[in-house]
Design a protein that fits this description.
This protein is of the alpha+beta class. Helices cover 41% and strands 12% of the residues.
Amino acid sequence: MNSRQTIQSKTVITLAIVSVLLISGAVALAQDPKPHAQSHATDAAGEQRAFLKQYCVTCHSDKLHTAGLSLESINLSDLRQSGESLEKVVRQLRSSAMPPPSMPKPAKAKLETFVSSVETSLDETAAAHPNPGRPMMLHRLNRTEYLNTVHDVFRADLNSRDASLLPADDTSFGFDNNGDVLGLSPLLLERYLSVADRVTTSALGMTSIVEPDVYLHRVDFSTPQQRWIEGQPFGTRGGTVFSYRFPVDGEYTFKVKLQRVGNTGAQGNDRKPQHLEFSLDGTRVGLFSISTAKTEKLPVDTTIAQLRALSQTAERSGGPGRGSGGAGGNGDMPDANLEVRTFVKAGERSVSVAFLSRIEPIPDTLQQPLASGQGGPPKLLGVDAVTVAGPFNAKGNGDTPSRRFILTCKPAAPEEESACAKKILEPLAHHAYRHPVTGGEMDKLLTAYGDGRKGANFEAGIAAGMRRMLMDPAFLFRVERDPVTATANTAYRIDDLELASRLSYFLWSSAPDDALLAVAEAGKLKDPAVLQGQVRRMLADPRAKNLVTNFGAQWLQLGVAEGVHPDPVIFTDFDGNLRQSFIKETELLLQSVLLGNQSVLELLNAKYTFVNERLARHYGIPNIYGDQFRRVEVNDGIRGGLLGQGSILTATSYPNRTSPVLRGKWILETILGTPPPPPPPNVPALPEAGEGKKVLSVRERLSEHRANPACASCHVRMDPLGFALENFDATGRWRTEEANGPSDLLPHPIDADAELPDGTKFDGVSGLKKILNDRSDLFVYTMTEKLLTFALGRGAEWYDAPVIRTALRDAKKDNYRFDALVASIVSSRPFQMRMSQLPEDAAQQHTEQPGKPAGTPVALGFHMPGAGTR
């Protein structure tokens, strides 16, 4: 296909998809003109109005309109008009954020009576007039969903470099699967074209189209090179380990670049050799001895005894000095020839490069060098990057799982090829499109197959058909269309196939499997018993781990923890291994609670955590040995639960000190669901420790900061929560004193006492856990709201609050088990229903084509000339 045809193809694709996106623009829901039936007696509305007048209207009047809210003339008879305002009132009262400390407060019983009365009214109104919301008609797969779907549909995995062609998605309401921000730019469309080509190459690995490629795997400089790294062979230290998918059988090269200090060469020890081992799937494929004298390639079958003997011989013989430069003897860099070329079978392989510590044990006193590399004992060599290149001299396509899965038949004669192509492409499209393949869709795939087959072989045609499939909007988008019979601006139940996609992308972040598609196509998924049976099955499937790595990680903001870099001068013990241990600890807790169907309250008050020796030593937990994570019981009131985990504590600190403000803000947002408002403009920064006449503690500096009235209103809610965690330093290590800089000769004792705006006093992390446990309904409400947001792919709105309250009531009967929350959300109206469009927009969507299912958008049937060719 020439460049003009390529541009034409891409332009047609872009215009067609953009046209669908324009049709699916957000539509404001008009108010239903039907009169609201009275659900509460007039005296109940009178009591509600009296409460608002006594405790709320002073600030939230028509005149003051504080926080943009007036309750003076609120309509308590028609809650469809006033529901949004009343949901705000309920939330603020439930969280004790209102009334403010300076205003009169109602008695606890009176407040509970008012809140319960309003919630009952709101819930009854929602039941009588359901508003399930209207997610985007076209919901583009985000990056995670795309990669998971490619893996499950085609059994193909992309290398990290290829996967990085898809940029990270924007987030909204805390998640990156919100349909409102998942647009499709021309640049992203270009990326999809490139990635589709790499997916087919990965899945089929055809020697006719695979060209030599170069992949660079970089190692974080903070990764410790003096310790064993999880995933490496035992008896090794440092280096790196990663997965790489080799597309075909052939020769590949592996080259190592060592860590360097400035321009002086690789940092390393003296004349005693260090031994670097290359391994594939645990089998050694290369071995090098590196010393001041030379870098020498050794036979791969060299034994440990032989290596020890060679090491002793080299040490006795000595060698030319090199100062701070690199090894090599002749002035060359020691890694100039650290390269192995070997034959590799196609498929996913574990690539490991590590130093052998079995030859020479590493003394405990030897620390990882800083970037300066100055002074101290002799330094250890470290790996900076590994390059994989190839294939060279490709020998064959390989017998990979993906090839066996895709190529279900092999035509023996040319006249058998079309039938075989259909047999291969149709089931793939069935899963990729998430619905039975229509005749028109199959024709397009076979046309692409024919274009790719011309001048090439049968497999090239299949690859072309797969690329066409990967570029179809039915694959890239989850499509939900209003049925022809839908009344404008009313709630209707989505069909079973749409429900199946909602369910699979909620629980797995991937496409429905055979079992789910089968019950959906049989029309049985709407049966509550069948639906809940599928939920239980899917939660037990390994793919449900996406709830941990996708939902849980985004909800808790673990991405921040992955990017933290505490000051290495202050926190000398922190390194990349410890950071990854922090994150794994949190993931294991989430996995234990979410996938073990425990009460979600365990996330706050668990009496256990997950550690290896490295993390246990950091936490001060004794008698833990080895690098494997295991569950340990903790009853000190410090560790156990999210608040004692290094991932949270480090992510809510600054590089050089703790931040009660960040920690308090995280608790308000993530645990209690009552985030503070944005700071006002021109707020002065917190003074540094040494500013003024004496060195001040963080608490003392914040006290001065709160003297500013513009700051006090927010800090009075955030700071007490953060003060309770001050015994944890900026890397989550327990401490009893706080030193603020080198001039602070008398460290300050930690003061973890705190008092909430409502007068509740508590001390330290154990006291904070008790406070949060006493208000556990706020935590479960917040988590359920986040879970609903993730499940729907849209932000939770005020009209979703009755659904969340129902989920809480249902789950409370089962001690707030996670599976009970999931079951309630999946059974809810927002998950199973959708609001139809307004009358003026509905006419645009019901035009149908022959052979297309009812409601299928015409724009999805466009022709893409040349899309199947390379």
